[in-house]
Amino acid sequence: MAVVDTLTGIENTLLQIGPIVSVILIVLGGLAYGMAQTQPSDQRGKYITTAYALIAGGIVVAAITGAATLIAGQSANLLK
What we know:
The chain is an all-alpha fold. The chain is about 90% helix and about 0% strand. The chain has one domain.
C-alpha cells in the first residue's frame, strides 16, 4: 500500500504547512492593499489586483488545508 502511505505523507505535509502559508498570503495581501492606497491612481489598480489575488490564494489554501483529512480519506477509500 505504497500509494496510501504517499497520500498520508501529503496529508501530513498539508496539515503542517498549510495554515502558515495561508496566513502569510493573507498578511501579504493586506500589506499590498495598504501600499496601494499610497500610490497614484494609475498604479493603484495593479496593487489592489495583486492584493486580492494574494488574499484569495490564502483563503483557497486554508480551505484545502481544512479539507485535507477528508480528501485523503476519500482518496484512500477509492484505492481499496
